[in-house]
Amino acid sequence: MISLAGRDILHGWGKFVLTSVGLGLLIGVTLTMGGVYRGMVDDAKVLLDNSGADLWIVQKDTLGPYAEPSSIYDDLLRSVLASPGVESAANVTYLTTQVRRGREDTRVMVAGIDPHDPAAPGRPGYLTAGRHISRGHYEAVADEASGFRLGDEIRIRRNLYRVVGITKRMVSSGGDPMVFIPLKDAQEAQFMKDNDAILQQRRRTEANPAFNRPGAPGVLEGVIASQSANPYVNSVLARVHPGTDPELAASHIRRWLRLEVYTREQMEDIMLGKLIATSSKQIAMLLVILAVVSAAIVAFIIYTLTLGKIREIAVLKLIGTRNRTIIGMILQQALALGVLGFAIGEISATFWGPAFPKYVLLEPRDAFTGFVSVMVMCAFASLIAIRVAVGVDPAEAIG
Q1: Which runs of consecutive H residues, i.e. helices, occur in 12-142?
Q2: I need a labelling partner for 354 at 20 to 30 A (CA). Which of 104, 183, 257, 386 fits?
């Protein structure tokens, strides 16, 4: 019957191949959607891994610095460094924005880091070209996915930065490439108001009756001076001593500094359970819809092929062929359709995956799970055709 199924496929090979191609493209889209989800998870984990931190200290009652806005004073760094179990710490800022490269805009996450401490958390772990930031102003290290090259100038808000280093796979949780600049520049870009806003605020302050009494000028000067300073960061990243339980160090900081502190495991739960939770649910719904559509296509095609050879099946029954032999023939055709379709889908996903704007991570375990799912789907989709074949009356062969 294997030969009989093969001969039947060869007899209608054009329809079979075209159906396999259509099914394969659909399977390819399904595998790609799964790869997009895997890529989102990998982006979130890469962001945490590349930070080199064990603790994320952020504004109290927030999920910052990635899932929610967070703003804390930069002088808290000294208190964090003095906390038990903390080996090193650094202030960081994160700002997702559009940056200018020539006449084009590129969406990136701008990270402000300490340029003077090579071992500080938050710095890019390695470079593929150039050097790390060594000056306090107007230098940048960019991820290669941003399209920037050594020597390029990046406009971030109102300042220009020269790219001195290129890194790789330094991305935000949303897959945006990262650009690293000195912390002071990043604070200015994120927190400083433009000149017009500062001027208007000074006018409001001067017009306030509270500053028109004796002694007010000194207070006014302090307010004006504070408008030119940027004492805020989004987070303090800390690394604990080897062998130290991060939760112990985190509990001390929570108690005495009145800040929110997250460990690596807690931050990963926030990233995967809250930040990309909605996107993962949408992808799961799409995968279910694509699976149902694929099963419907296989069922329709196998049913059509079976209806096209009702007389041949009746002849087989007339000469004494058992039902299980006919069932095996139909099942083999369905499985052959699934094998060919999955092969086309896997090749298609591998081919067009790198062209996607989102990172697509195709894992072997997903391919194996997909193959098994396709085989099961094809087997179930053939049940309708099998039911029709089993019900064929042998008398139709001579009718």
Answers
A1: 13-51, 76-81
A2: 104
The helix (run of H) or strand (run of E) holding residue 93 is: strand 86-101
H or E element that contains 364 = helix 364-381
3-state secondary structure (DSSP) of residue 299? helix
Q: Using omega within 30 degrees of 0 as the cis cutoff, is the peptide bond preceding 65 cis?
A: yes
pTM assigned to the model: 0.80
Distance between CA 70 and CA 111 in Å, rounded? 14
Cα separation, 383 vs 367, whole angstroms: 25
CB-based contacts of 48, cutoff 8 Å, min separation 6 = 264, 267, 268, 271
Number of H helices, E strands in the chain: 13, 12
Question: CA distances (Å), 280 to each of 54, 97, 271, 276, 343, in order?
Answer: 26, 24, 12, 6, 26
Tell me the per-residue pLDDT of 244-253, one tens digit each, with 9 for 90 and over.
999 999 999 9
Q: Where are the beta strands (DSSP E) in 55-199?
A: 55-58, 72-73, 86-101, 104-113, 129-130, 139-143, 153-156, 159-167, 178-182
CA distances from 30 to 41, 174, 371, 373 (A): 17, 21, 12, 12
Task: Please tell me the distance from the alpha carbon of residue 216 to that of residue 209, in angstroms, as a whole number.
Answer: 10
- Which of 238, 251, 255, 272 has the alpha carbon at shortest distance from 54? 238
End-to-end distance of the chain based on CA atoms, in angstroms? 25
pLDDT tens-digit series, residues 253-274: 999 999 999 999 999 999 988 8
Q: What is the pLDDT of residues 113-130, one digit of tens each?
A: 998 888 889 998 889 999
Tokens for 363, please give them: 């894992």
- Report CA Rg, the chain: 31
Report yes or no: 390 and 313 within 8 Å, Cβ to Cβ: no
Query: What residues pair up with 182 in beta bridges, in sequence order?
Result: 113
Rounded to 5 degrees, φ, ψ at 232 are: -115, 150
Q: Give residue 94's region: left, alpha or beta (phi > 0; psi -120 to 50).
A: beta
